[in-house]
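User: Teach me something about this protein's shape.
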Amino acid sequence: MSPSTDPLADYTADLAVRLGALSEQAAVIDAAAQAIADTISADGMLHVFGTGHSHLLAAELFYRAGGLGAVNPLLIEGLLLHAGAELSTSMERTPGLGPAIFAKMDARPIDTLLVISNSGANVIARELTRLANDAGLTTIALISTAHATSAASRGATGERIDQLARFVIDNGGVPGDAALEVAGVDRPMGPTSTVLGAAIVNVLAMTAAMKVAQTGIQPSVFTSSNVSGGDEENRATLARYRSRARSL
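Assistant: First, the predicted structure itself:
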């Protein structure tokens, strides 16, 4: 494909193709959503973790208008970009931080852990996935398969999260994430993992909520605080999950 001279048209067209291709992940998305539904029905929590820009997807699921109430995002200050971009990169590669994070999760066997890592290779993501498996949680990995299979793992064992998690969802992105050549620019641009990942995690949430509702249980879903009555509608959800979602 020749370099783009119309980024608006070419980037949105590329995203449209990749979003359409997510239908190929329908079976695993449905199975992962069933696991989340089982967690919600058992009064458990969906814990969500991502480093770098992947943490945006943990935030996307949390305290979100139209989002599930039973979400605990693992937003660790030193791993977030605003705390220092290079520091966050160094920390996500540091062995031994995963157990410290896991110990603060209040993880229970009825819970589910969603780990998001485009490469699947970062140490903390691998440590958390293994610890969650050992504790009896259901684990879901959201990765770029093309990137993960082309990247060397930074874990001492050489494992990636897609080799550890019970369910593996491929976001359909390319190695390096940037999908397009742009005219006159010497390296690719147009990353896709955030847009595709946001679509996937919202589909997971909606499908899980639907499955819970089909059992006769009404799942807790947030209403926008910026519509009339939103604050009042959210009070019960906040009260129900505040003790397990530390960021609430």
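Now, about its shape. The chain has one domain: 7-241. The chain has a mean pLDDT of 93. If you'd like, I can walk through any region in more detail.
User: That's plenty for now, thanks!
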